[in-house]
Amino acid sequence: MTIELVDGKAGVAHISSGDKAIIHQAKFSKSDVVFDWGDAFKCTMGSANRATIGTGCASIQGLDWHITSAESVTISNGSQGMKRNDIICAHYHRDSSTGVEKVDLTVLKGTPNATAAADPTIPSGKILSGAVDAYMPLWRIPLDGITVGTPVRLFTPRGALWDSVTLPFGNCNGNSNGGIYPIGKVSSPNAIKSLNGRATLSSGTTVAIPFIHPSYLQRSVQVSIAPDGTVDLLVGHEIAVTGGIVEIHF
Predict the structure, then answer these.
(1) According to the model, what pLDDT value does residue 94 have?
(2) Is this structure's pTM higher than 0.70?
């Protein structure tokens, strides 16, 4: 029987990490996710051989994990006249005999090259397909000779979830109450390019997405919302985008 009430009482222990991974992937993302909590895994180099990763919370292929006190990893020495990229990863491992699972930090060492550094290959194991190892890249550590460069973040922290269901936005075919609403994509010269807890505008500016209670006005405006999220004004004055927020002006 493949149907299961995961969050229901069954009389025996029945909730597995695979159950939670499926549910978390369905709710949040099949991709690895770093949440905006703690230090969001901030990376600092204490020396040429020691990188410290700050506190944070994340999900690797749907399995949640966190760091509650800073952890350190060792970076191997560079070679004179050679360039190299190392990748700091979260490493998921399941013991094939006991089934015990854990996550720790590991460093995947790149191959030295005299002209251009390249990232090492990240193993692509899929946990839900039975892989005993999976890797979640966090930071690139560039080395030029024996000099360690500035760490490069390989993820964008995702902000806390907000209610995108009950906002009184109206519908695509009717009138919408005036107000200020978060929108995913807008037909504007400063349109939002991506939405991942924070909005990245076409200008390159990244802005927070606050919850703003809509202020109801006496007049209304009609807008057309295309399947890709593009918003076009049908009746009324212009729609402006200020700080990543769509404002309907009357």
Answers:
(1) 97
(2) no
Residue given tokens 């729609």 in the structure block: 239
Q: Is the CB of residue 65 less than 8 Å from the CB of residue 58?
A: yes
Q: Mean of the pLDDT values across residues 218-235?
A: 59
H or E segment to which residue 22 belongs: helix 17-27
Order of strands, sheet of 50-53, starting from the edge strand that comes earlier in the sequence: 43-47, 50-53, 71-74
CB 60 within 8 A of CB 32: yes
Judged against a pLDDT cut of 60, whether residue 210 lies above it is answered with no
Three-state SS letters, 46-92:
EECCEEEECCEEEEECCEEEEECCCEEEECCCCCCCCEEEEEEEEEE
**Domain map (residue ranges) of the chain:** 17-153, 175-248
CATH superfamily assigned to domain 17-153: Phage fibre proteins (2.60.520.10)
pLDDT score of 176 more than 50: no
